[in-house]
Amino acid sequence: LSDGCEGKPLQLRRNVSIIAIDFKAILKNVRWEQTRTTILICMSTEIDNQAPDFQVRIASTGDVLDVPHGKSILDVLVEHGYRLEINCIHGLCGTCKTRYLEGEPDHRDMILNSAEKAEFMTPCVSRSKSAEIVLDLPPPQAGQAVIPEGPVAVVTASICVGCLTCVRACTYGAASINGELTGVGGIKGAATIDTKLCTGCGLCAAACPTGAIGMTRFTDQEIISQVDGFFIPGNGAEVIGGAETPNGVGPQIVAFCCPSCAPSVAEFIGDPSRSVDLKIIQMPCTGRIDNLFLIKAFENGSDGVIVSGCEPGRCYHTTGNLNAEKRVRRVGDWLDDVGLTASRVRMVHLPVDGADHFGQAVHELADELRTLGPSPVRGRPSGRGQDMEREGKLLDTAG
C-alpha cells in the first residue's frame, strides 16, 4: 500500500483464505478503508503472472461469457444469473465444483482429487488454460438464490463477562468487546460479533466459558438433539448419509466431522461391508465441537467417539482442528477419571483424499472398543436411573 497501489487489486496466492481476512483486519486497525483495495483469494501454490483473458461457454444456453483479469469464473457466472451452490466464506470448500465438457482447466484448488479434476473444476479459484472452456450448467432462472444463508455467531450480552476469550479464538477479527454494552452483573463491556467478517466456524462459541456465544445454525441444542436422537430405543435402523446401518452391528461410534472431511466420510459410509454402527454429525468446523457434545455422546451410551478434521496447517479456519484435538485429549482425561478409558475417544486428521485414512481410523477404534467391551453407560434398565451417579460425576467434571 505504501508503494502507491491504492485502488488496485491485491492478489494473495496462498492455500487459505484466512490471510485475506487477516489483511482486512489489519486495514481496519490502521483505519485504512477496506473499499480502497480489493483482495482476491487464489488458492494456488505457485506465483505467476495473471492468467490471460479467456471465455466460458455454457452448454445449456450457448452463452459465451468473457472472464477478464481480476475476476473469477464464479464472479462472471453470478453476474449473468447462473446459480451455483457456494459457501466459501463459511469454510464449505468444494461446494461450487462444476462439471466441464470441453477445454483445459487450470486447477488452483486444494480440494478436488485427481479423479474429480478429470471431470470437475472449482470456478471460485480455478481458471482456464485454453481460450474457451465449456461448463455444464442449467440455464439461469429468475429468483434463484446464489449464496445459501450460512451460520453466524451471536452474543447474549447479559451473560458475557468480557473475558476476551472469543477475541482470541476468532481467526477473522470478527469478535470484539464493545464498551457500550452491558455484560453480566452490570459490568461495562461485552462481546459483539461483526457479521460481515464472521464465517460461522463456531470457534468462539465452543471456546466461550459462560455460554454467552451461540450460533444461528449448528446451535448447541441442534447438535445435542442430534446426538440424543441416535440413541432413542426402538429406532431400528439409522439412515446416515443415505446409507442404512442396522443398530447393534459392531461398536456404536459417533463421528463429528468437518465439511472438508465429508467426501472421505461419505465414501466410507457407502461401503456395505463395514461392520461398525457409525453415526455422523457434520460440523461447520471441528473447532465448533464443545466438550459437552463429546460428553453427551458417551452419556447416551456411545461406545466411542471419533473427531475427524483437517490435517494440521490445512484447516480452513486455521486453528479449528487444533482446538478440537485439545478438547479430545481433555475429554479423554475425564473418561479415564470416571473409568471409561481415554481410548474411547480420538482425533483423526484427514488429507484431502482421506477415505482410506478415515476407514482405518474407524476400524482401529472399533477394534479397541471390541476389546474394551460395550460402554457400561449403555444397556442398563431405564438407560438412565442406575447410571445417574456415574454420569453426574462425568458431567460435573466437564463443568
Descriptive tags:
four-stranded parallel β-sheet; five-stranded mixed β-sheet; alpha/beta; 22% strand; 399 residues; 19 strands; 11 helices; disordered N terminus
Structure description:
- This protein has 399 residues and is α/β, with parallel strands linked by helices.
- It is built from 11 helices and 19 strands.
- The protein has helices spanning 18-29, 73-79, 114-117, 165-169, 203-207, 220-230, 262-269, 291-299, 320-337, 355-372, 388-398, and strands at 9-13, 38-42, 54-58, 64-67, 98-102, 105-106, 120-121, 127-128, 132-135, 153-155, 175-182, 188-193, 213-215, 237-240, 243-246, 252-257, 277-282, 304-310, 345-350.
- Strands 4-3-9-5-7 form a 5-stranded mixed β-sheet, with helices on one face. It has a 4-stranded parallel β-sheet with strand order 17-16-18-19, with helices on both faces. It has a two-stranded parallel ribbon with strand order 1-2.
- Helix 7 packs across helix 10 (355-372) and helix 8 packs antiparallel against helix 11.
- The longest helix has 18 residues, at 320-337.
- It is flat.
Q: Nearest-angstrom radius of gyration?
A: 23 Å
- Structural class by helix and strand composition: alpha/beta
List the strand order in the largest sheet: 4-3-9-5-7
> Looking at the structure, what is the overall shape?
flat
Uncertain regions spanning at least 5 consecutive residues: 1-51, 236-248, 381-388
Average of pLDDT: 79
